[in-house]
Structures are given as structure tokens and as C-alpha cells.
Amino acid sequence: xxxxxxxxxxxxxxxxxxxxxxxxxxxxxxxxxxxxxxxxxxxxxxxxxxxxxxxxxxxxxxxxxxxxxxxxxxxxxxxxxxxxxxxxxxxxxxxxxxxxxxxxxxxxxxxxxxxxxxxxxxxxxxxxxxxxxxxxxxxxxxxxxxxxxxxxxxxxxxxxxxxxxxxxxxxxxxxxxxxxxxxxxxxxxxxxxxxxxx
Amino acid sequence: xxxxxxxxxxxxxxxxxxxxxxxxxxxxxxxxxxxxxxxxxxxxxxxxxxxxxxxxxxxxxxxxxxxxxxxxxxxxxxxxxxxxxxxxxxxxxxxxxxxxxxxxxxxxxxxxxxxxxxxxxxxxxxxxxxxxxxxxxxxxxxxxxxxxxxxxxxxxxxxxxxxxxxxxxxxxxxxxxxxxxxxxxxxxxxxxxxxxxxxxxxxxxxxxxxxxxxxxxxxxxxxxxxxxxxxxxxxxxxxxxxxxxxxxxxxxxxxxxxxxxxxxxxxxxxxxxxxxxxxxxxxxxxxxxxxxxxxxxxxxxxxxxxxxxxxxxxxxxxxxxxxxxxxxxxxxxxxxxxxxxxxxxxxxxxxxxxxxxxxxxxxxxxxxx
Lengths: 198, 369
Hints:
The complex is a heterodimer of chains A (198) and B (369). In chain A, 44% of the residues lie in helices and 11% in strands. With 198 residues, chain A is α/β, with parallel strands linked by helices. In chain A, helix 1 packs across helix 2 (22-34). Chain A starts with a helix and ends in a 5-residue tail after the last helix. The mean pLDDT of chain B is 89.
């Protein structure tokens, strides 16, 4: 089967995006052909600006337009509490919860020597420097509860605790509004172990 | 239960349809007639993998481009599983009730299966890794939590070994702190594994003595002893684990290998308090292997609530008639089983029942008796 080359190229590029299969890529490409030109221009600009206008915050490595991100610049945030996350996407997730009003520090990954990631390749040196410059009294570790995330939490706790800072890790358990019967055994097991006295 | 099976271009079978009994199913045939292939197909359909971890290409009939196998199960509901493999794609396609499923995990575990084959001699006679593999497989099938712990621990082992290797090349203080973090993770996950294994062995020993007494005349007492390099003394497990790691630290760094932890566990099989591996007779080994599989069968039945299918490949040929008779009688209690035999005349001690199915593969013809 012969497909016109520009369409073929567009499908292949879209197919490289996470979560986009061959069929979806084709649907998206065909949809764009039918769309108005202004829409395609806007989309192009939006995509380009992701690379041109966005950078990493100089302090916390969150995504930012300026040297420091909105959260770091805000004077309404609690400057003494620091939440450590893996990626900028985790900042967005926690911000949506509206339950945290402190500052963040984005590591840019977790320890994984198998894939060549050691502490040097993460923003850990910068994290330690923040304890010297800022008045941080409490750290919340909000890393994923997998093998690498847990080890990274253990590692950071080893580094931070001697500085006299309170260190905690976010709790794990059942999702809110979820049905107990649909939760997997490991989650229920952990929720049992980490139960709370009423 | 497995009610029927259909094979196409699977090993020696160009096209084969078989209906089964919910009791004993004997598959009779000389060497090379394709007895084991039938068990293999059943195993494939339950686990999506070959027996003795053979590759898909190996079970494809020589000179053919694809194989297809299908099974119909009748439990509370009627289910069909179909697996289709093509040489061109070098890929298997799975169908559950004629609907394609993408992940093999949607089939694995739905129809539990227990196999006893001559290759099981390695469980009692081989290295500790063979015994760990057996124990891990039983426990993982029964407990999702155990499977998760095992995956987590194995990942930690790989990461830590890789870091030890890095440290060997580039000795920095920073990396040493990182090793400490992975060590702590190793202890946390490892202790979890040890605790679950300890609990399991206590429970599994009851199943072993029960099965062993059914296969033997009750004069011998079997036992499994969990032998870990980390022992609970007055100190908690974590402490013993850390202490041992400390002792081995330099050696671990020198070799860049994880030397301490449950990945080095062994399970000692004993009969009348005597070590089976060193002092057991051939007969005792055979009996123990059979008892292990029967125990696995009843343990899984109890824990998962569904009755596994029992596959026995060429087991009777290696046993003396007294043990073989015992086993065949015990088999009557499990429900459905599939048994390959070379020549039925040699096994006159096996009591036949009307409901049993006999599939005779001799002379390439198929005779139900």
C-alpha cells in the first residue's frame, strides 16, 4: 500500500509519542489534514514554545518560564517545608491536591545504577546546597513506591536526617472513593500494616 | 476441568482432537508417539509457556508455518483458550472465549496446573537454586503479595550488583553512601521474603507429610527445613542481616556480587531426620518428588480455591510397582489428571475405572478404550 509521503512522515512522528499507537497516529494525522490552517499554526506554536519558552527553575528544577518558577517566586508559600519529587509531572499532581503549600525539589529521576543513574546524575547536590542557603525544617519524600523510588527515599533520608531536619515519607494505602474489593492484594496488605488508630 | 483439546501442527501432531474424563486420563504410546506433546499442549494452554522452558519454535511441527492449540474448560462456566503461533511473526496470539487478549497474564493462573515429570529429579538432587525455584513457584501462584516481594527483591539485587560493579571501577565516598541505601533496601525486602518463606514452610510441611504418607506406607516421616544464611537469633532478622552484610562487605565489593540474602537460601529435604540429598535412596528421591507435587496440588487448591489440573509425565516407569500402585490410588483423590504411560500391560496394578479415558497413540492411530 502506498501512502503519500508527508502523511507517512506525520504518522511516524506522532507514533513516537507515548501512548500513541499506529492507528491513533493515523487518525490524528488525517484529522489535522481536515483542520483549519489557523488551528494547525496554533498547535505548531504551542509545541515549539514548549522547547523555546520553558526551562528548569534555577532553584527547584520545576518547569519554569523565568529563572525561578511560580512556586519559588510566590511569597504565600511556606518556605520551611520542602517536598521532594521525581519529575515535574509529580509537582502538577501534588499541586492539584491543594494540600501542600511548601516548596518543591525535582530530582529528575531516581537512583537506578542498572540504567546508569547514580546520585551524581540527579539534582541531589543542589538539594543539599538548599539546606545551607534556606531555612528548611521539614522534608516530605513523595517518590513512587517502587524498588528504585523507595531506595532513593532511603538514600535521601540518610543524607538529610543528620542535618537536623524532620524527614517523612508520604503514606500509601487505598485510593479514596475506591472499592476495597477492587484493590490489589499488595495495596490492601500495606493499608492493613499502616492502619490508623481511631 | 479440561474437557477437550485440539492440536494442529503441534510437535508430531498434524491434527488431533481429544475428549477427556474428569477423572484419570491415560495417554498410552511407545517412544516418539507424541504422548508428552499432549501434556505439553495442555501446559501451554494453562501457562502460555512450554514445559522445561522450551521455545515456541521448538514445539512447531517441522516444516509447518504455524501451530494452533485449543482447550475447553468446564468449571463453573465454560471457557475456551486458543493459542496461535506463526513462524513469520514469531509471535503467539491468545484468545480467551474467542476474544483476542493481548497479555498472557490474562490467561496465566486462570487454570492452575501442577506437573510431575522425570526432570523433577533436580528439585531433590540438584542445586539450591532448583529448590528455590520450586518453592518460589508454589508461593507465587498462591500469593500475589509474595510474587510482588520476590520481584521487588530481585530488582534490588540487580541494581545493587550493578552499583557494586560501578564502585569497583570508581571508588568514591558518594557511591559508598549509595551502596548503603541499596543495602538498606536489600534488608527491608529480603526480610519480607524470609518471613513469608518461613511461614510458608511451616504450612507446607503439613501438606508434605500428608502426601508422603499416602504415597508411602506411613513408616517414613518427611520434612522440609528452611535453611537461610540469615538466622533469627535473639536479635531480630534485620540485625543479623546487617551484621552478615558487614562481615562480607569487602568481599562483596571485590567480587561485585550480592553474597548475603534469601537469594542464597536452601531448603533441606529430610526423611526420618536424615538428609535426603546426601543419604536418600533413588526410591526415596522419587517418592519425595511425587509428594512435593501432590503437596503443591493440595496447597494450591486450598489457597486459590480452584482445583489444578495434574499432569504426570512418564512417572510410573521409574517406580517400583508398590509405589506406583500407591500413587495411582492417591491420584483418584485429586480429581482430573493426565498420565502418560508407554505400555499399559506393565501396569496391571493400576485399577481402571469405567469413567477413565485411555488414549492409545500407537501406530499413529487414535483409539479410545
